[in-house]
Input
Amino acid sequence: MTISRQIREKLFIMLLFLMHVSVISSSTVDAVETVKKTKIKDDHKQECIVKLEYGSINWTTGVARAKGRNSAVKKEFSDTTTDTMLVESAIENAREHLFQILKSVGLQKHSASENREIVKQPDYTLTAQIKKKAFGAKMVKSHYISVLGQIVEVEVETRIYGDFLDSVLTAEIEEIHDIQLFEPEDNYLKNQQNLNSSSIYSDESWLETDTPFHANQKLQYTGLVIDARGIKFKPVICPVIVSEQGEEIYTPLFISRKYAVERGVCSYICSPNPAIISQKVGNNPVIIKALRKDNDVSHLIVINMSDADRLQKMAERHIFMKRCRVIIIVSP
Output
């Protein structure tokens, strides 16, 4: 059976059309994937990641990672060595590195003042808890890096918040009961809402959203942002903010333990991204420029007296500090 010339031409045109659609579809998919990868890369740049010899700490997400390899010496592994054994050896090595990272973070000596510790002093029990946390970390990545397939490199990760932070913080840092804010007499509020002088804003629900807590109420500050870029401040698990006269403005002793354990004493970012800031400290944070860091105390940030006074006059600071709604912007 022969196919007429007209039919052949139609089939050829249809084939070209299908090929063109396929190319467009493929290009569209590639473009979408490129946009996704670019966005992920940009978001990653804004996160505060400190790279270490055998791993890293992402202070924005609160995740610590460590790399490890199996002891790839031929005499240690015979021809009967399985891939599982190689991977298990690498995981053990990675967890040991993670243990060293967590120790360096969790056992730093931090004092809110000369007489009060905010992080437990190193002891056998605490070290054992940190080791348990490290050796319970799960593998998140693995690959062979030897041509012969005998060297395996893996990565393990764990969170530095949650049970780890709970074990590190001293018993002094306890739960803080909800604080009731009494609004003083205000003609604006009276005229707009017909509120009496004993109005109370104690449910704190306005802190849980990125919108003003009431259209007619005066907008209150929802969190604190400290811009510490340029002062060479490095992220620590328990930072302390003081005035020029040494008065404590924000320390872990001002926070509620459950919020610290859940989200960290504060959040760190390397770029003032409005979306991240709004997510972590609400839509109306007070923003303060750090004056300097203390040369003798690595975890201490100094702000000027006028900013310290402004903070202390904010009744709502007790609420957002209690909830650890604090961001520190540091240099990459």
About this structure: Confidence is low (pLDDT under 50) at residues 23-41, 181-204, 209-217.
